[in-house]
């Protein structure tokens, strides 16, 4: 199994993003893949978000967008999400990936080359 | 992009929690946000869980609760989930966050101050 | 709170897997639990995947399978997923878990012993 830290190739990460709707998540996810900022975007609709905004606890319907990419692309990916997103301060956080199926990691790196 | 390890502010983490129903996930998520143990709770309903319990493989309908917080709050968050949860041994696990959108991380830390 | 790095017991990880359908995710998840390669499998249906395949950006309906296991089992888990999966190159990636509820981590390690 390829350990992304010791392999010659670069570490891979997940970007965990939330969007205001499934359509927004799909639009942003598709743009990231088309622009090779992510190899793949997984969208989960029907998410309910509870959060504190200006001192009040609010609840909203959202969608989750999980984008898989190379670590060195994360800053550009996050900047592109900010461009495309309807929120001023979108949730874009990076989860480290330790290892993975070698064939899949190879495909992922190629799709974002 | 703000690297949560080198920044003056504290690392951020995701708490991955599973609940017996969407209502339970919402109730716990809202309590965590109201008590500033999490800035935001993302609830995904319709999850199916397969697990081994007392030697038998079981299947149950559950919901996922992802809570975003500061690393130093994780122990208190996990203790509070145990208080509120219907299970004796709830799944509460901490996923590290490497980096994120600076505006979002700033909001997250403020909402849990 | 038990820190999986300093505790005598072994680190725990999440395997993030995508499948072609809910049925496939359930079938693979159940096999992993029955064979003690995972303590628990969480299946989220209704995921939409956008990805680049042979130069074309495609979209497909998939399901997410999150399997919780011990780090030392990840390679065997990934190999077993490849055996059972309908794709040639399935997404099987390892997310590190930093800490968790001690009772839950204990149960997880026992269920995969």
From TrEMBL, chains A, B, C:
It comes from the Bacteria. Transmembrane segments: none annotated. GO terms for biological process: response to metal ion. GO terms for molecular function: copper ion binding. It holds the Pfam family CutA1. InterPro entries: Ion_tolerance_CutA, N-reg_PII-like_a/b, N-reg_PII/ATP_PRibTrfase_C. Belongs to the CutA family. This is Divalent-cation tolerance protein CutA. It comes from Azospirillum thermophilum.
């Amino acid at each position: 199994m390829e350990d992304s830290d010791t392999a010659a190739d670069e570490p891979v990460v997940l970007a965990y993003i939330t969007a205001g709707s499934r359509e927004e998540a799909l639009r942003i996810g598709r743009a990231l893949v088309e622009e090779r900022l992510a190899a793949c975007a997984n969208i989960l609709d029907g998410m309910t978000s509870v959060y504190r905004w200006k001192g009040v606890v609010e609840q909203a319907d959202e969608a989750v967008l999980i984008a898989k990419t190379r670590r060195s692309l994360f800053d550009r990916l996050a900047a592109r999400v900010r461009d495309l997103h309807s929120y001023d301060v979108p949730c874009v956080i990076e989860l480290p990936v330790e290892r993975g199926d070698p064939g899949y990691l190879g495909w992922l790196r190629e799709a974002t080359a």
